[in-house]
Design brief:
about 100 residues, alpha+beta, Arc Repressor Mutant, subunit A, 3 strands, DNA binding, HTH_HxlR, WH_DNA-bd_sf, transcription, WH-like_DNA-bd_sf
Length: about 100
């Protein structure tokens, strides 16, 4: 039997978890957001977890962090062009979740 590589696992390792899909869907749906705005829009996430997940997404070039040299300091997060390649996938997953909840809850 021939072994196969499953790149789905590679992709999911970058975008899966409890909070990353919510962060990505929020940025795709709402555009660039400040940290506090993201925290308010994502129900239940802690500031520490949001910072950790954003850093991982930034390291994987999915999310871009922009720091403005203003007083007070302003930082925004947005999807990179590369990250936007996930848009159709995340929208389909969102729609699938809606249909699943309608059928099985």
């Amino acid at each position: 039997m021939k072994k196969t590589n499953c790149e789905v696992n590679d992709a999911l390792s970058i975008i899966s978890g409890k909070w990353k899909p919510a962060i990505l869907f929020t940025l795709i749906s709402n555009g660039s957001k400040r940290f506090n705005e993201l925290e308010r829009l994502i129900n239940g996430i802690t500031p520490r977890m949001l910072a950790k997940e954003l850093k991982e997404l930034e390291n994987n070039q999915i999310v871009k962090r922009t720091q403005y040299e203003t007083i007070p300091l302003k930082v925004t997060y947005e999807m990179t062009e590369y990250g936007m390649s996930l848009k159709d996938i995340l929208i389909k997953l969102h729609e699938w979740g809606i249909n699943h909840n309608r059928l099985y809850k």
